[in-house]
Amino acid sequence: MPYDRMKDFLAELERRGKLRHITEPVDRTWEPACLAKWMYQAMPNDERFGLYFDHVRGSEIPLVTAALGASTHTYAAALEVEPERINEKIVQALLNPIAPRTVPSAPCQEIVRQGENARLSDLPIPTWTPGKDAGPYITTIVVSRDAYGGFQNFGVYRTQVLDDHSVVINLSPGRHGFRCVHSYLDQGKPAPIAWVIAAEPAVHFATVANLVYGAEEVGFAGGLKGAPVDLVKATTVDLMVPAAAEIIIEGEILPDETANEGPFGEFAGFMGPVLVRPRAHIKAITHRRDPIYYGLTSQMPPSESTVMQSLTNAGVILKTLRHDLGESTVRDVHIDLTFGGLLAHGIVAMKPLHPHHGKRVGRILADLTPLKRITVVDADVDIRDATHLEWALNSCFNPERDTVILDDVYFPLYMDPSIRTADGHEAPGSKIIIDATQKIDAGSFSLPPRETMMRALERWRELGLPEFKIPPRAWFRIQRS
Ligand SMILES: Cc1cc2nc3c(=O)[nH]c(=O)nc-3n(C[C@H](O)[C@H](O)[C@H](O)COP(=O)(O)O)c2cc1C
Question: Residues of CATH 3.40.1670.10 domain(s) within the chain?
C-alpha cells in the first residue's frame, strides 16, 4: 500500500526501529540540528534513524528530520522496496509516471491562516548551523509555476526566515525554480510560490530529481508512489499543492524585491556566502488539524540531503542512459553518498560494446550532469562494494590511456569548494572521467574454476562452518572463474 501521508511512513519506520522520539522539550535554535549532526557524523549508514521531536519550545507542532534520508534503508523503506531495488523502482517510475489528480478540498487546508494570522514563528523552523547560519531556514519542497508553459516545478531551495511574514529564497540562477519565478517577474508581475511541509515521501524524492525543464516532478512522484498525487488549489496564490501535506506556506515574490540571503551551512561541508536573492511575502499558512513540521537536514555530509539526492539522481541517470540514450548495456549507476549527488562521484557499471565505449558514456554523463568525477567499470563489478570497485580500478585502469580531463566546464552551481572562495566568487571547474573497463585480456581469474568453488561451498556447509551471505562480488567473480 503506498504511503498516502508522511505520518503513515513515520509509523512504519517506528515499527522497524528506525525512528526515535525525543519527548523532552528542545530549543529549535540549536538542539534538533546539533543532535542530527551527531547522528550523521558519528553513526554509520546502517544504524541511523529519523528524529521526531515531540515538544519544540514555543511551538505546538512537533518537528521531524532525517527520516526520509537517514540512510539507504529509510530511503528504500519510503519507496517500499529493498535497498538493492531502489534504482529499478526509480527507472520504472520515470518510465511510467502517473498524472496528479485535482481534489476540491484537502487535509492540508483543514486550518487556514491568512494575512497577519499567518505567522512563521508558529512553526518549529530550526536553525541548521547554530552559531553560523543567518537565522532559521525552511528546508523543504518549493512549488513554482512557469507563466508561459503553465507547468509547475518542484525543487528544494533553502529559504531564510526574515520575520514572521517574509523570507528570502536561494533561487540560484539556472535552477528551474528561478526560471519559473522570473517568467512572472520579468513581465513585472508577482510570482506565486509555495512551500510544502511533509508531503507523502514520494513527492520529496521526486522533487530532488534533476529532470529537464518542464518535466513535472509530480508525475514522477505518482510513479514512485504507484498512485496519483492529489493536488489542491492553494488558498491565496495560483498554484496547485500536494493535498496530503501536513503544512503549506503560500507566498508571493514581487518584482525587484530582494534581500541578503545567508550565510548558510551548505551540503558541500562549508558555509555558503551572503548573496542577493528574491524576497517573498507570506500570504497564508494552511495545515492539518494535528500537523507535524518536517525539515530536511543538510550541511556537512553525510546528511539527509546527500542521501536523498544521490540515490534519486543515480536512478534518474540510469534511466537516461538506458532508455533515452539507448545505452542498453548499462547495468547500474551509483553516486557516492557524501556530496549532495551533484558535484560528486558517479560510477557506471556497463558492458562496453566497442573500443572507448566506456569513455564515451563517461563524457556523456560529464556533459549532462553536475557530476565532477565519473568512473566507468565493467558490468560485472558491484559498484556499491568498495573492495570490488578498488580492484577494478587497480586492475583495469591505465591512467595515461584511460583518463579524460575536461577543463573549463561551468555548471551553474556556485557550491564547489575547490573552485569557490568563501565570499562566493568562483572559477570554471574541471571534470575527470576514468574508464576502468577491461580493455586487455589479462587471462583467467586467479580463483579455482566455478564447479570446484561450488563443490567447496557445499563442503563449507557440511563442515558446519559459519553461514555467510554471498556478496554480489563473489558471485560475479565465480561466474568468470
Ligand atoms: C535540503 C536541500 C536543500 C537544497 N537547497 C538548494 C538551494 O538552496 N538551491 C539550489 O539550487 N538547490 C538546492 N537543493 C538541490 C535542489 O533541490 C535539487 O537539485 C532539485 O532537483 C532542483 O530542482 P530543479 O532542477 O527543478 O531546479 C537542495 C536540496 C536539498 C535536499
Answer: 325-436
Question: pLDDT by residue (tens digit) across 424-467?
Answer: 888 888 999 999 999 999 999 999 999 999 999 999 999 999 99
- Kindly give the number of the ligand 1 atom that is closest to the alpha carbon of 159: 8
Q: Which ligand 1 atom is nearest residue 305's CA?
A: 31
Distance 179 CA to ligand 1 centre (A): 14
Residues of the chain with pLDDT under 70: 411-413
Ligand 1 atom at shortest distance from the alpha carbon of 69: 31
Tell me the whole-structure pTM to 2 decimals.
Answer: 0.97
What was the pLDDT predicted at 174?
83
Q: What is the pLDDT of residue 426?
A: 81
The phi and psi torsions of 247 (rounded to 5 degrees) equal -145, 140
| Angstrom distances, CA of residue 273 to CA of 168, 173, 449, 455 | 14, 15, 58, 62
pLDDT of amino acid 413: 66
How far is Cα 317 from Cα 197, in angstroms, rounded to an integer? 27
- The response to whether residue 175 sits with its C-beta less than 6 Å from ligand 1 reads yes
Is the shortest distance between the CB of 340 and ligand 1 below 6 Å? Answer: no
**Predicted confidence (pLDDT) per residue in 237-283, tens digit:** 999 999 999 999 999 999 999 999 999 999 999 999 999 999 999 99
User: Is there a contact between 306 and 76 (Cβ–Cβ < 8 Å)?
Assistant: no
CATH of domain 325-436: 3.40.1670.10
Distance, C-alpha 18 to centroid of its chain: 19
Residue ranges of the chain that CATH labels 2.30.110.10:
6-294
Name the CATH architecture for the domain at 6-294: Roll (2.30)
Check residue 173 and give its pLDDT. Answer: 86
**What pLDDT shows up at residue 314?**
98
Residue nearest atom 25 in ligand 1 by C-alpha distance: 210
- Cis peptide bond upstream of 263, omega within 30: yes
